[in-house]
């Protein structure tokens, strides 16, 4: 029996089941059908029993070992061993292939007007038809092959785009968010109106752009001027008096709030603490006195440091006292927490005052330096004046006298 071999001339490995029945339009006959896939035979093989299969279908059937021919069973022709399909048990049926391949065919895809033979269909049209329905692997939408390019480029909601600026690929739905952080996104300088500054260079640009307006350094103490960088020195020189004034106000304000904060509130708090401690001690005393005459223990919800100093009480009065003790303890805890907060605030303010004092000292030194320079300049002017009047006198003694 001939082993299956590539069937010339149109023999590619048969790697597909049969052709769709639709391609034969009207001239479909049963003898052209594969006994496995029930479509039009592609590279037919004939088994020993005489039944025909696409070579793909036959190989699929026998890939798990010999099988009974289902067509033989169906037609009640089954007999061993002829009806057993097995590897190498079929030969290429070139007569049937030529017959099928010569049949007139049409394209089964809706809208396509292609016509030719089955052979031509397989050789040049199958898989190349513009009207073939395909699935977008990204968004799973169905479309015609000739719409795929447009879909991929412009319509697919899952398509990737390259960022216009940094050229990195991004999913369409992420590209807007990317614009916000793209290092190459073009920014405009508000100062010098320069355009297309890549975001990654923008910080450097405004650091050196002399037209970029930034808030005055003294805005922390209340100067609300914004100045172009090239004019910042002028502003600080012109407004040094105002800046000092603002600083002074600021420091005075802090001083006042510190004074109002520190002594009273802390004192009040510690006084209250002491009172509470006292009443706690009283309560403990009372409870231990009461507890002397009882034995039954009570599930105590008190802090362990206190439970040692008295015996729990079973009576209603005991419970009430315990409750009061609890609430007093909560108050004490709350008060000490607030004390800590206040201390923290005080130390923060102290730090601020230190910093501001230093700043003041620096400003004063600068002012002094200016004054000194001013005096020196005045002296020079005077000397020059004197000199010039002396020289004038020398030149025109008569006129002047
Ligand atoms: Zn088949
Ligand atoms: Zn058979
Ligand atoms: Zn077509
Ligand atoms: Zn898609
Ligand atoms: Zn980008
Ligand atoms: Zn600029
Ligand atoms: Zn200012």
UniProtKB/TrEMBL annotation:
Keywords: Coiled coil, Cytoplasm, Metal-binding, Zinc, Zinc-finger
Domain TRAF-type: 124-170, 177-233
GO molecular function: tumor necrosis factor receptor binding; ubiquitin-protein transferase activity; zinc ion binding
Domain named RING-type: residues: 34-72
Gene3D superfamilies, alphabetized: 1.20.5.170, Zinc/RING finger domain, C3HC4 (zinc finger)
GO biological process, one term: signal transduction
Localization per Swiss-Prot or TrEMBL: Cytoplasm
Chief localisation class: cytoplasm
Listed InterPro entries: TNF_rcpt-assoc_TRAF_met, TRAF2_Znf, TRAF_BIRC3-bd, Znf_C3HC4_RING-type, Znf_RING, Znf_RING/FYVE/PHD, Znf_TRAF
Chain positions of all zinc fingers (TRAF-type): 124-170, 177-233
Alphabetized PROSITE patterns for the sequence: ZF_RING_2, ZF_TRAF
Entry annotated with the keyword Zinc-finger: yes
Annotated GO CC locations: cytoplasm; cytoplasmic side of plasma membrane
Highest rank taxon of the organism: Eukaryota
Coiled coil: 325-387
Stored PANTHER family: TNF RECEPTOR ASSOCIATED FACTOR, TNF RECEPTOR-ASSOCIATED FACTOR
Family the entry assigns: Belongs to the TNF receptor-associated factor family.
Protein name stated in the entry: TNF receptor-associated factor
Organism the protein comes from: Haplochromis burtoni (Burton's mouthbrooder)
Taxon lineage: Eukaryota, Metazoa, Chordata, Craniata, Vertebrata
């Amino acid at each position: 029996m001939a082993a299956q071999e590539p069937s010339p001339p149109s023999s590619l490995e048969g790697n597909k089941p049969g052709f769709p029945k639709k391609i034969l339009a009207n001239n479909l006959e049963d003898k052209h059908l594969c006994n496995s896939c029930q479509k039009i035979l592609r590279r037919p093989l004939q088994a020993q029993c005489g039944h025909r299969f696409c070579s793909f279908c036959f190989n699929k059937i026998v890939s798990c070992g010999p099988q009974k021919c289902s067509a033989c069973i169906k037609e009640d022709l089954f007999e061993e061993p002829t009806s057993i399909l097995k590897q190498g048990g079929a030969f290429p049926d070139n007569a049937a292939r030529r017959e099928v391949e010569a049949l007139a065919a049409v394209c089964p895809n809706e809208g396509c007007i292609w016509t030719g033979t089955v052979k031509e269909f397989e050789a040049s049209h199958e898989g190349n038809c513009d009207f073939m329905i395909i699935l977008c692997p990204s968004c799973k939408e169905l479309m015609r092959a000739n719409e795929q390019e447009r879909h991929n480029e412009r319509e697919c909601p899952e398509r990737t785009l390259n960022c216009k600026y940094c050229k990195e690929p991004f999913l369409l739905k992420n590209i807007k968010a990317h614009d916000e952080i793209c290092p190459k996104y073009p920014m405009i300088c508000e100062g010098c109106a320069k355009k297309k500054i890549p975001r990654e260079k923008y910080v450097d640009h405004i650091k050196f752009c002399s037209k970029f307006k930034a808030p005055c350094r003294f805005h922390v103490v209340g100067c609300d001027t914004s100045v172009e960088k090239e004019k910042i020195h002028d502003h600080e020189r012109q407004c040094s008096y105002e800046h000092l004034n603002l600083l002074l106000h600021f420091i005075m304000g802090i001083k006042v709030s510190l004074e109002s904060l520190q002594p009273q509130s802390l004192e009040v708090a510690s006084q209250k603490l002491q009172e509470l401690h006292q009443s706690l001690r009283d309560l403990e005393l009372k409870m231990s006195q009461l507890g002397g005459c009882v034995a039954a223990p009570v599930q105590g919800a008190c802090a362990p440091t206190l439970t040692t100093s008295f015996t729990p009480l079973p009576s209603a009065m005991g419970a009430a006292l315990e409750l009061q003790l609890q609430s007093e303890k909560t108050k004490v805890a709350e008060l000490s927490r607030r004390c800590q907060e206040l201390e923290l605030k005080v130390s923060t303010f102290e730090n601020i005052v230190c910093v501001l004092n230093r700043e003041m000292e620096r400003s004063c030194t600068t002012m002094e330096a200016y004054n000194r320079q001013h005096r020196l300049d005045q002296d020079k002017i005077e000397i020059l004046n004197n000199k010039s009047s002396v020289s004038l006198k020398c030149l025109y003694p008569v006129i002047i006298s």
